[in-house]
Design a protein that fits this description.
The protein is of the alpha/beta class. It has eleven helices and 14 strands.
Length: 375
């Protein structure tokens, strides 16, 4: 039974552009085209086309942010508690859009897409992409939908980076932003974790320099990369509460090496379910885009934030050690010092970075109040 406050049954849509000779020029200097963008939308665009909200995704999320694909679906979209009639992003008021980023593997152009020059999947011939490249592709989609200015852009983690990049790159097209659990740039620690995951993928014998689409994919390397990443999403308190030192088998041999603890089994489960829905090469390219994100100019954050004029609602999680609240608070304070409208909310949560997917009840009222002010 689909809940009454759900957006209901939804479907994916696609938009393609960038056909030769009009390929998209990327930050790297390379071109990409044609490009297909896969997206979903909920609610109705008003006659003035002024009520559109763009939801931006994290590293592994796709465009299925809300609703169900069928009556038999067990789970709704990944931010469903926030999107729908009467919810934070109220589809009785707003037209909500969510698209897959380029570089991914859920319908938008990425390494597993066919490279027109070779007739085979791009693999490692896919160009390096950045958060700004993702945003520029989203801008093409928004223009295609006839929208000149978005009411707000909201997203968590990498999605928050995209919201900030939108406000910096296209200030005239953004009325407000809601960046959740994201920094102004990736820290050396985050880059180190990402690189360890990438090396795990590339060390898998089946990776074959990215040319695995007609053979066995590097599932073990990708699973390890996900395990490493997932550790950074949880707080120490959450791990202690959820697992402690509980054993998977009380009769385990004391010197047995394999999966003695429940936390180990949990990480293996997360790793192996991830490989069923994600492409290893996409993980390489998207994680690198996160590493490259940097709002600072000449090592000066204030200078980097000068072009961001949209009213902002920054949301952080108290136990997030991947992208700590202090990094977000710094952006908020600088924007206030520049006489810009900014709100900052630190949610008391034990869920770590993953709190942006879990603490939706605590996020609903602040988002509603912020959007009411923007109206």
């Amino acid at each position: 039974m689909i809940p009454a406050n759900s957006v209901g049954i939804v479907s994916k849509n696609t938009y393609s552009f960038g056909y030769p000779p009009d390929e998209l020029l990327l930050e790297s200097g390379r071109t990409l085209g044609p490009i297909t963008v896969c997206y979903e939308s909920y609610g109705k665009l008003n006659e003035q086309r002024t009520n559109a909200i763009l939801i931006t995704t994290g590293i592994s999320a796709d465009s299925h942010a809300a609703g169900y694909y069928s009556e038999n679906d067990k789970y709704p979209g990944w931010w469903d508690p926030l999107i729908g009639p009467g919810k934070a992003f109220d589809t009785n008021k707003y037209f909500v859009i969510c698209s897959n980023v380029i570089g991914g593997c859920a319908g938008s152009t990425g390494p597993s897409s066919i490279y027109p020059i070779t007739g085979k999947p791009y693999g490692m011939l896919f160009p390096v992409i950045t958060i700004k490249d993702m945003v520029r592709v989203q801008k093409k989609l928004i223009e295609h939908l006839g929208i000149q200015r978005l009411h707000t852009i909201a997203g968590g983690s990498m999605g928050g980076m995209q919201a900030l990049e939108w406000a910096r790159t296209f200030p005239e097209a953004v009325k407000s932003i809601i960046p959740v659990t994201c920094p102004s740039r990736s820290s050396p620690q985050e880059i180190a974790f990402s690189e360890t995951g990438r090396q795990a993928i590339m060390a898998d014998p089946n990776w074959n320099k990215g040319n695995y689409y007609t053979s066995k994919p590097p599932v073990f390397g990708l699973a390890i990369a996900r395990m490493i990443g997932h550790i950074t999403y949880l707080s120490e308190e959450k791990m202690n509460q959820k697992f402690g030192r509980k054993m998977t088998n009380r009769d385990v041999i004391p010197n047995e090496v394999d999966q003695q603890f429940e936390v180990e089994s949990y990480l293996h489960y997360k790793g192996h379910t991830f490989v069923e829905r994600f492409d290893a090469n996409s993980y390489l390219f998207i994680s690198r885009a996160i590493d490259l994100f940097d709002l600072w100019i000449n090592n000066d954050l204030a200078q980097g934030l000068k072009s961001i004029c949209a009213p902002s609602l920054f949301i952080t999680m108290s136990s997030d050690w991947l992208f700590p609240p202090k990094d977000t608070l710094e952006m908020h304070n600088i924007l206030l010092s520049q006489n810009k409208i900014s709100q900052y909310l630190k949610i008391d949560s034990i869920h770590g970075h993953d709190g942006f997917l879990i603490e939706t009840d605590k996020m609903t009222s602040p988002i509603k109040d912020f959007l009411a002010i923007i109206n």
